[in-house]
Amino acid sequence: MELEMQASIDKGISSTLSSLQYDCAAPRNINDLDLQPDMKDLIDPQPCHNFTDTSYLHCSVRSLRLRAKLCAIANSLHSPPSFADTLQFEQDIQIALDNLPHWTDPRALMASTLLDLQLRQFLIIIHQPLTLYTSSQSKKRPDTSQIYTTTTTLSAAESIITLHTALLNASPPNFALTCLRLDYLRAALLIAHIAYHSSSPFITRIARPVSEATATASLRLLEERSMRPGRGNHHYWYLSAAISLVSIRFAEADGKGEEEKEGLSREAGDRVCALLYRVLALQDEQGEGMPSEVMLGDAGTVGNTMRTPASMVEPGFGVDMGGFQGMEAMEGWEGQGTWGLDDFWFLGDLDGG
After folding, report:
1. Structural domain count of the chain
2. Helix (H, G, I), strand (E, B), or coil: what is residue 352?
């Protein structure tokens, strides 16, 4: 049920759980080792605050009906819910978040993060229609509902990226949710959309620090997804372009010169080239290994640094620019003007994945 639910959210369709009846009870909060072949009766479940092998499934069922309902409403063909209804849905989500158990067991990090993410993503989804409408308006003074919606969306989006980043920074790092989910991409693109289109000084003051704080982290998340399962390179193009567009907008507001804005534009392509270079390095039949760092740029331009995950680096491999020899002959390379940011905003997989 959980897999079908998340697939429906990612595809933008209603979950079948919203229209079908089911009577599956929640799994008991017990450990797998508590089950024995000669058992005649099931043991009593442990309290929710005790983490077990089935704690995630046991707690996730509690919010399943709410999430199925919100998924159906968000993807309905009818008009989006009113602001009052949206506030009620937000309150329901916050109550469900507050009721999540707080485990101290180190093994519970991924389970507790996933329980939080699958609820928190709906804070973005239910506020998204009004957020996109607000950002498309040219009002210098948005009304109270628009300000509330935008700030709530930014807060939820930043929290989602922070939760995913915490898993990467854990010891040992956990890449499971990073490779299986894309809610952080939705969050990062929405932050960029708000920051780029904002015409209100108040919203800009809120969106800019959030955008600057999450840009590197969101790129890192997509980088890990591209390098480990080998999928999602096209998503990296979209986000890299969006972040550069926002950076250029901020540079214009700060009165920066054309040279610096050109450097920010070039960074969008440099980041993608660095990622693709590292992917190709893994496919090298000569077995030269994986560079620990790829740097693009030269004197007078804004360079880009991209680090390879430590678990994918082979010791003793030197870093040089040999992998980029001959690329200067490519059309549009090094700012020839024919490879613009608009070229990043096409649909479809670059790598077929």
Report:
1. 1
2. coil
